[in-house]
Amino acid sequence: MQLRYAFRLYPEPGQQGALARAFGCARVVFNDAVRTRRDARAAKEPYPTSKALSRALVTRGKLRRERHWLSKVSSVVLQQALRDADAAYANFFASLKGERKGPPVGEPRFRARKDSRQAILFTANARWKVTETGRLLLPKIGEVRVKWSRPLPVVPSSVTVIKDSAGRYFASFVIATAPDTASLPDVDRMVGIDLGLTHFAVLDDGTKIESPRFLRRAEKKLKRTQRELSRKQKGSKNEAKARLKVARVHAKVGDARKEFCHQLSTKIVRENQAVVVEDLAVSGLARTKLAKSVYDAGWSTFVNMLKYKCERHGRMFVQIDRFEPTSQTCSHCGRRDGPKPLHVRVWTCPVCGAVHDRDTNAARNIKAAGLAASACGAQVRPHFVRGGAQRDEAGSHGIPPMARATQRRHSTG
Known about the structure:
The chain has 413 residues and is α+β, with helices and mostly antiparallel strands. Helices cover 40% and strands 17% of the residues. The protein is built from eleven helices and 15 strands. It has helices at residues 13-42, 50-59, 75-96, 214-217, 219-230, 237-271, 282-285, 291-297, 299-313, 358-373, 402-411; strands spanning 2-10, 118-122, 129-130, 136-138, 142-147, 159-163, 169-176, 190-195, 199-203, 208-210, 274-278, 316-320, 346-348, 355-357, 390-391. The strands form three sheets. Strands 1, 2, 3, 4, 5, 6, 7 and 15 form an eight-stranded mixed β-sheet that branches. A five-stranded mixed β-sheet has the order 10-9-8-11-12. α1 (13-42) packs across α3. The longest helix has 35 residues, at 237-271. The protein is elongated and about 85 Å long.
């Protein structure tokens, strides 16, 4: 499986300028590749190959007077921009042919200078490295200070430098690692989880986890910063500063929500051998009047964390169908009592007389459906689910950097 480790970067003013130059050059090369292929399509000519684009846009582009500044950044960054364009067109054509899973993908668009997120990738050919002092050495940028929250398990082959909308810099590493099934002890317990808005999560044993509602709590401050932004002159430096303040408020909300999901998902995976959740139609619920509350809950983030942590630690992860009538069925006798309005939180089964809390009853039915999916209630055995690169948990305490951790690991065995 693959895990993503992200660490905060603190570049100096000169390094920030070098990174801005690298972001800009990568954006220009990507846009030139898209423009060249669009022109070829308009002229009914075959699409230029990646080799031809590299020769025309990078090798010869550096010799042109209007593109001479391309030579001031690493050529690996420019070549990766061309690979990104190739991947975007490959996804677009696969979507047209129906060969790509998920929602349809449109034709690649031009990258804007004011995009909220900018990123560049340094592969092993760029000869980047982590120095003995724990800094990240990037070609034509220099040694950038890194806040290492934990050591990397292995030496990665590439690093992605990201600048988000709040002006923060991150170094992202994708690590291929084997599942760590020995880090958590085996437990004989299975949990069913019902996600909601009144409570973020309700477990089948009746435990209710309150919804933090991070965005709702930050609305007052967000409203004030957005009001300040609306009063600034368009295109001025003060408007850029005000926009950065708004982005920082949103970033703080997102970080708090992600930290909450990390802590809760880790606790659930540690205490249970199997986790059962419901497949929620988040995109459909986001089109209702509850859209802000749905997005503020962060269900998809939480479920994705449960999924990859179960895979990593050898736990079982089961996701039942969203059309399963968990809120309509009595968890005692199995009678289906029909749909109920949202304001009905407690109801009584007309057959067995059991009094049910709506959410707890749904969690118990979710657990029962998960048991049925795992060999009709047979002994729970861990299996792995597929997943891509996930961002690993980030601590807050300083830990020796990757270079020292790697040397220590090699020296001890």
